Amino acid sequence: MSVNEKYMRRCLEIAKNGIGSTAPNPSVGAVIVHNDRIIGEGYTSSFGGPHAEVSAIRSVKDKTLLKKSTLYVTLEPCSHYGKTPPCANLIVENKIPKVVIGLKDPHDKVAGKGMEILEKAGCSVTLGVLEKECREHHRRFLTFHEQKRPYIILKWAETADGFIAPIKEHRNSKVEPYWITNTYSRQLVHKWRGEEQAILVGTNTVLDDNPKLDTRLWKGKAPIRLIIDKNRKIPKGFHVLDGKQSTIVISSINNSYNNTQNYDLQFIEFNDEFILELSKNLFKRNILSVFVEGGAKTLQAFIDANLWDEARIFIGKNTFEKGIKAPILQGQLTAEKSIVNDQLKIIRNDKKHHI
Length: 355
What we know:
Shape: elongated
Oligomer: single chain
GO molecular function: 5-amino-6-(5-phosphoribosylamino)uracil reductase activity; diaminohydroxyphosphoribosylaminopyrimidine deaminase activity; zinc ion binding
Function: Converts 2,5-diamino-6-(ribosylamino)-4(3h)-pyrimidinone 5'-phosphate into 5-amino-6-(ribosylamino)-2,4(1h,3h)-pyrimidinedione 5'-phosphate.
Mean pLDDT: 92
CATH superfamily of the largest domain: Dihydrofolate Reductase, subunit A
Number of strands: 16
Distance between the termini: 38 Å
Domain CMP/dCMP-type deaminase: 2-125
InterPro entries: APOBEC/CMP_deaminase_Zn-bd (IPR016192), CMP_dCMP_dom (IPR002125), Cytidine_deaminase-like (IPR016193), DHFR-like_dom_sf (IPR024072), Eubact_RibD (IPR004794), RibDG_C (IPR002734), Riboflavin_Biosynth_HTPR (IPR050765)
Low-confidence stretches: none
CATH class of the largest domain: Alpha Beta
Number of domains: 2
Largest sheet: 9 strands, mixed
Order of helices and strands: HEEHEHEHEHHEEHEHEEEHEHEEEE
CATH topology of the largest domain: Dihydrofolate Reductase, subunit A
Family: In the N-terminal section; belongs to the cytidine and deoxycytidylate deaminase family.
Structural class: alpha/beta
């Protein structure tokens, strides 16, 4: 492992701390090194706060060392004014002579302009260190800017005999989830929810399970709830309409709910291009990633449209014999592990659809 790779790996480690809170910005990691010793590091703050480079520079106690240091960063420093000033300018102002970058920023307001600012100021710039690993870490941000759509993760739990839900007669009279997985798997799902900007479910999932779609089993930011309710079947009183977290109801009926303070209403035509149009709409709303949790019909619609990036599938030990069949997809199995008595498979889409 080279010196540059060693410090870029540290950048990637600390960049994980921002996942789930920085969107629509990427979660970047930055490290400042002087004489083979880390003197400062930082990661992207919650949206609107300091970027990784700013936090790293601020953390350096002896600022005179910056003139003889190297800055490592997972993504090209920004060059435009947004919620914060350009990071490239700050690097120049602090006279940092060397910058090592994992990945060029695909954002149309950056896309090489950050490196150009640095090089014009006489800074030595190295690009492409651990580029593959940086692309993996920044996959949500890259999908959003390169494919003009959110990064889409499908999640479901199925029984050992391939069912995602039991028949109605086997459910309790109370509207609540019917658990296939154990408590550890469910806690992991809540952790995942906190890592994505939005969570999406269909009408039947809401009517059958009355889910909250929050992160109550894990400390994390609750995602934006995206509720597909074509014909406005979901009555008041269900958790998804309680106003406790940002919610968008997606409907074919283009008029307001009575209580519009609790949620936003988005009109989309439910035709053969619905999933494509939904993805375009979410892109316009600056939604970087979506966690699709069901039901089977909604999940299969994303699969059939080939608009998904990864699937996280739990397989429980119990059987239903009858019920709603789990979705069917093809892709590349990238990970498989046991969570007590549950099995978890991670599948990547190796034939992505580009908008």
